[in-house]
Amino acid sequence: MRLVSSILRFSLFLFVLVVPGRLRAQQRFTLSGYIRSGADRSVLPGASVAVPALGTGATADAEGFYSLTLPEGRYQLSISFIGYQTQTRELNLTKSQRISFSLPEASNELGEVVIEGTGTLEQKLQTTQMSVEHLNARDAKLLPALFGEVDLLKTLQLKPGVQNGGEGTSGLFVRGGSADQNLFLLDDAVVYNPSHLFGLFSVFNADAIQSVDLYKGGFPAQYGGRLSSVVDVKTRDGNPRKLGVSGGLGLISSRLTLDGPIVKEKGSFSLSGRRTYFDVFTRQINKLNKDTEDYNPIPDYYFYDFNAKANYKLGQKDQVFLTGYYGRDVFGFNSTGGFNFDFTWGNAVGALRWNHVFSPKLFLNTTASVTRYQYQIANRLDQFGFSLSSEILDYALRSDLDYLASDKHTLKLGVSATTHRFNVGRLSASSTDGSLNIGSEIVYRGQEASLYASDNFKASDKLQLDYGLRLTGFRSGSNQYAALEPRGAVRYSLTPKTSLKASYAMMYQYVHLVTNSGASLPTDIWYPSRLNVKPQRSQQVATGISFLLGEGKYLLTDEVYYKWAQNQVDFRDGAQLFANEDLDAEFLFGKGWSYGNELYLEKKSGRTTGWIGYSLAWTQRQFPPQRGGSGVNNGKVFYPTYDRRHNLTVVGLHQLNERINLTASFVFTSGAPTTLPQGRFLLQDIFGDNPMAVPIYPDRNTYRMAPYNRLDLGMVYKLRPKHGESDLTFSVYNAYNRRNPYFVYFEQVRNKETGDVTNYRARQVSLFPVIPSVTYNFKF
């Protein structure tokens, strides 16, 4: 018994001595913090913290926050982001720690240009998310631009699966979706009209933007409300260390940005403004010519926008952000005959966000926002005045909770609520003598809410899943709708450099853009789902394969998608869209399909970077007869105007030396579908005089215009000022002067002797010839 007792006591001693040590050796701790730019302390979404010894790592979220759980031990960390120098840090992890990193920008010296850039490509390979494009303003500013005006949405048009709305426009048509099926977010606040100058430029000033994420499919559960894409725009935080000024003088506009600390290292602000000056020249021309006999005034036009952002740390765990945007387009015409025409439109956006870190594994973002889009047309002729306006006003509140439950599970939960006010038509007419004073207003209200949950599950080193469910609801008056929107994505690594991916997403859209044209115009009206206006719905499946090539310097992806949609919106021929109290009766509803293949080759490191994208795609719509009418195209399937069979883009950026960067982009797309008359018949009046040639139209969009192709060239030449930084950016839009079709019309061909009309001839209208431009940019 003594021997047994001794053995038991010795075993207990070993258990007390050894087992806790082993338990301690198996303990895991969490490393978390922020990754920022060393230059201006702005956050770097998408930056990575890697642990090469374990083959694991973490990616910073939209706030620049990362979190990584590791076993206790000593590690070497690698912190990287494209355009910044990679850092390595030694870490002895014995407890949960919060460590933030600052990355210095990549040097201009050629020896250091080839930076460690494959981290982002590896992340794109390893993430479950597919059909997404990430863009930062720094890269976009190097690309050639129309009139030298850098436009982030135009840069997105250079990605496969994205079509533009026409020559020079910034509108997006993503994977067969219409213009109103894109959700634009500015720091989590909705922007309803993302365009200036009738769609030629976007409202997003590149100086104020930190990053842009475009989701074409496989939508994460936190996004909803649109069918085709999500464009998530994040604005820059100000520099919390020192005051800075930057800006630029361009061919059509000037920009100025001011940022700096509110309280050093605790809070900062950023202010950015931009204005065009077409009107400065047109007014001077009108003044010089107003006394001439054939004086015909030129209309005035200009746009401006203003971005503001401030942030402040309330403590180690709390930070608040305030974002504001205000932009306006102003078009005016004053004729010599007393007729005055004024047309203004624009957005106003405000968002207040509170970020709270409960622990390194649990953090919360809550955002309250207000969004307003409106336009107004005002005419005056002598004593009579007339005005027409429309508006949509939103008040929204959303809260998103991120929880790193374990090494294998990352949970996201969220809730949102929005109150809509739709003023679909305000009409007024009056006279200066008071004999006429009439007005009418049509207003609808709606409430939209959602609740979502998702889980990113790392089943193994090779298999990762991302699945979620979104519950949405909408109410307008006595009409109510609710829907479940399942989302799912999976990634399987065949090898360390090859991944297979697949995704599925269902989306509902409860607000609709009332338009009778193929492009989004300032006069389009947003309209709620009602009894006779059902919510739009789409489902999309996609699958793809990704390869890292050339020692990780290249990423090649091939994605195939199929999307089908119900309750697509169109309108009766001759529909009355303005100030119509029974607008529901003008809607037609149908279905649509789009499918295609997208190839994409990308290089992000070295002196030469860029991408090549190609898509082969089909888009179709069908609106059967309904309500006693013939539907659209007599109920037959047709191709909408944004259907493009082939789309090729090539983008190249090359650093020639420490002062000169060369850039180029080439675009080729199939011609846009259009409807042209196939013949005419003569219609005589009762007296047999003045016959009228009436065009005979075939099915809708049975013709295609000529293919579109364009080459843009650019050069950035860095100057050497005594203080700060500056450069001259040269660009040539449409370098070989391709006369691309904008629209086609017919003119009469007459007999030279008799003057009789003998035939009709098609004429093509082109918008932009070759346009060189230069912009001076500065920063100090």
Structure write-up:
With 780 residues, this protein is mainly beta. It folds into three domains: 28-103, Carboxypeptidase-like, regulatory domain (Immunoglobulin-like, Sandwich); 121-234, Beta Complex (Ferric Hydroxamate Uptake Protein, Chain A, domain 1); 254-779, Beta Barrel (Maltoporin, Chain A), CATH 2.40.170. It is built from five helices and 47 strands. The protein has a 22-stranded antiparallel β-barrel. The chain has a five-stranded mixed β-sheet with strand order 9-16-17-12-13. Strand 45 and strand 46 (757-765) form a beta hairpin. Residues 148-226 form the TonB-dependent receptor plug domain. GO terms for molecular function: siderophore uptake transmembrane transporter activity. This is TonB-dependent receptor-like protein. Keywords: Cell outer membrane, Membrane, Receptor, Signal, TonB box, Transmembrane, Transmembrane beta strand, Transport. Belongs to the TonB-dependent receptor family.
